[in-house]
């Protein structure tokens, strides 16, 4: 696993993961950045994904895939993280599902190199220390499956956030390349 500080929309990988809204019609944060760089075809493609209930194309913890259009990445995997509500509403399990299900979708599409943002750590308010531990633990476990992407990049937007990932890696005995 690799930790990069920067903008996920600039990566030439097989797939980048979007921290999306359940409607999959864009929003702020990394979602906005991805839509902006991918261009309007991404929104059209998201609109075509079926609604499983009114306004919901991807429930919390699940993942959907579209092409990357104007991005350097071939695909976008859209996942919806949990909104942090104090930690007593299965937020940890939901965040784990985001990482697991995104890796499963990537495996189904034969993606080898995939990049994740810090899902739920912006607008959705998940504490970074806990989110970093969940991300690393879940991704390391998912990589035990030989069909899962073997090159996973965690893309952290700000330097001050990266420390949480280094600390989590230490605690879990994982090695993160820079
Ligand atoms: N590259 C990498 N990381 C980024 C980028 C970028 N270009 N832009 C923002 N981030 C980081 C933020 O700093 C944060 O750490 O992504 C992390 C996730 O933040 P959000 O994008 O706010 O995602 P999230 O907390 O999961 O909230 C999702 O926000 O905009 C809406 O539609 C989105 O409703 C959904 C909600």
User: Ligands bound here?
Assistant: adenosine-5-diphosphoribose
CATH superfamily grouping: Leucine Aminopeptidase, subunit E, domain 1
General shape: globular
The beta-strand count equals 6
| Share of β-strand residues | 15-25%
In total, how many domains does the architecture comprise?
A: 1
Q: What's the CATH architecture name?
A: 3-Layer(aba) Sandwich
Instruction: Report the order of strands and helices.
Output: EEHHEEHEHEH
Major β-sheet strand ordering: 1-6-5-2-4-3
Structural class: alpha/beta
Helix count equals 5
Low-confidence stretches: none
CA distance, first residue to last residue: 9 Å
Helix content: 25-40%
**At the third CATH level, what is the topology name?**
Leucine Aminopeptidase, subunit E, domain 1
Q: What is the alpha-carbon Rg in Å?
A: 15 Å
Please state the average pLDDT score. 97
Name of the CATH class: Alpha Beta
Can you summarize the main beta sheet?
6 strands, mixed
């Amino acid at each position: 696993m690799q930790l990069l500080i920067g903008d996920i929309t600039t990566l030439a990988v097989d797939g980048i993961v979007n921290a999306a809204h359940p409607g999959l019609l864009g929003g702020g944060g990394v979602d906005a950045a991805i839509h902006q760089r991918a261009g309007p075809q991404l929104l059209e493609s998201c609109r075509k994904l079926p609604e499983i209930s009114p306004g919901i194309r991807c429930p919390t913890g699940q993942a959907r895939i579209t092409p990357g259009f104007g991005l350097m990445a071939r695909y976008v995997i859209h996942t919806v993280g949990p909104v942090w509500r104090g930690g007593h509403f299965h937020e940890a399990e939901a965040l784990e599902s985001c990482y697991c299900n995104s890796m499963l979708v990537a495996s189904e599409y034969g993606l080898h190199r995939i990049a994740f943002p810090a899902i739920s750590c912006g607008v959705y308010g998940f504490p970074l220390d806990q989110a970093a531990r969940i991300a690393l633990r879940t991704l390391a476990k998912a990589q035990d499956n030989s069909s899962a992407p073997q090159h996973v990049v965690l893309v952290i937007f700000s330097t001050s956030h990266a420390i949480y990932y280094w600390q989590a890696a230490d605690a879990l005995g994982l090695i993160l390349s820079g």
